């Protein structure tokens, strides 16, 4: 049985990924394709065509890629249905379309309910809708608007009495003011970073 080996420089450091093809795979007319080092991390592709709604899933014990059933429209992570993370945890994920972005099924935004009592909280990039509960006089400090053009916060005072002060960094302002104050329960404010050291109130 003959085999043919191909090498492609596919990695950033110029190393080669070995690919081998067996043109005489049994039981059908399709060739079997293997990629990577078969003794360690390589995988062999199936020699048959999968059915509709099936996906290729890595089988680490047999070093093969196998067809597995998957519900229509679902996305899998590691071969299992469920949540999947796209993009980097340290940068932005950019979605771009010529006619905008269309999402079907609704949108779920980040929501945090945080209890404070006469405390100070620095808002981070992971916050979006923040409902402050607790009591007393609390302070929220915004991050720099200069490096966060378009970043938005919705802040809600979810407790009776006291005050919730929202402060801008020393180099920023909230439309000309250094801070703004929420004094009534369920009072809310929406802020968007302009990118030039100003938080805009919407």
Question: Can you give a write-up of this model?
Answer:
This protein is mainly β. It contains no helices and 18 strands. The protein has strands at residues 4-9, 16-22, 32-35, 43-44, 54-59, 64-69, 76-77, 80-81, 111-117, 120-122, 129-135, 137-141, 152-157, 163-167, 173-174, 179-182, 187-193, 198-201. The protein has a six-stranded mixed sheet with strand order 9-11-13-17-18-15, with no helix packed on it. Strands 1-2-3-4 form a four-stranded antiparallel sheet, with no helix packed on it. The chain folds into two domains: 4-81, no CATH class; 111-201, Sandwich (Jelly Rolls). The protein is elongated, with a radius of gyration of 27 Å. Helix content is 0%, strand content 42%.
CATH architecture annotation name of the largest domain: Sandwich
Spatial gap, N to C terminus: 72 Å
Helix content percent band:
under 10%
Quaternary status:
single chain
User: Can you write the helix and strand succession as a string?
Assistant: EEEEEEEEEEEEEEEEEE
CATH topology of the largest domain: Jelly Rolls
Q: Helix and strand layout, with pairings?
A:
Blueprint lengths: L3 E6 L6 E7 L9 E4 L7 E2 L9 E6 L4 E6 L6 E2 L2 E2 L29 E7 L2 E3 L6 E7 L1 E5 L10 E6 L5 E5 L5 E2 L4 E4 L4 E7 L4 E4 L1
Parallel strand pairs: 9-11, 10-12, 11-13, 12-14, 15-18
Antiparallel strand pairs: 1-2, 2-3, 3-4, 5-6, 7-8, 13-17, 14-16, 17-18
């Amino acid at each position: 049985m003959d085999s043919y080996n191909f090498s492609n420089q596919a990695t950033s450091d110029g190393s080669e990924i070995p690919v081998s093809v067996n043109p005489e795979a049994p039981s059908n007319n399709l060739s079997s394709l293997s990629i990577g080092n078969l003794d360690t991390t390589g995988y062999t592709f199936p020699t048959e065509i999968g059915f509709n709604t099936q996906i290729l899933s890595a089988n680490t014990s047999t070093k093969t890629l196998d067809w597995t059933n998957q519900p229509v429209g679902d996305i899998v992570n590691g071969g299992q249905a469920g949540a999947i993370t796209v993009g980097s945890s340290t940068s932005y994920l950019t979605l771009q379309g010529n006619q905008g972005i269309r999402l079907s099924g609704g949108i779920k935004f980040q929501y945090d309910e945080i209890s404070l009592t006469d405390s100070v909280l620095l808002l981070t990039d992971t916050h979006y809708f923040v409902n402050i509960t607790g009591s007393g006089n609390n302070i929220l400090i915004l991050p720099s608007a200069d490096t966060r053009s378009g970043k938005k916060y919705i802040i809600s005072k979810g407790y009776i009495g006291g005050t919730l002060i929202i402060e801008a960094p020393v180099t920023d302002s909230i439309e000309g003011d250094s801070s703004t104050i929420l004094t009534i329960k369920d009072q809310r404010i929406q802020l968007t970073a302009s990118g030039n050291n100003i938080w805009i109130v919407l």
